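Re-run with default settings, no changes from the original entry. Doing this only to confirm the output is reproducible before filing.
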Amino acid sequence: MTLDQNGVLRWMPPGKGRYDVRLAVTDGEFTVYQYFTITVQEVAADVQIMSARLTPEVVVPGQLASVSVGVDNNGDKDLEDLHVSVSIPELGVRRSSGSFDLDAGERRDRQFTFVVPEYLESGVYLVKITLSNDQLHESAYRELYFE
């Protein structure tokens, strides 16, 4: 398990089960700990968040921008009442799609539009993309670069 300089935690579980995690962050003088449990279960559906694109690629404060999210159902089960949400917490942005169905073998794209805040500073921002319904909850994280 690794934690990069942007605070993104990366880890691939070895298999199903419960994993107790202790995350320690230090500045050399003080250390802070975060404890949590990750539960890995069997895959209920083979659905993936395949893409997240920012348009335009370089945005400026006050400009309209959009995030396009591609979702694939690679499984053999039709999925109903799905929702996609996109959030950029540092910018106060949160958008959600309406409910939609995704049949086996099908791909859907959803687009989310927002105004780039006037106070935006250049840098890397973490985007959380969530796909969910009553039976599944999948999240993916992407880094978006603003200049």
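The chain has no helices and twelve strands. The longest strand covers residues 17-26.
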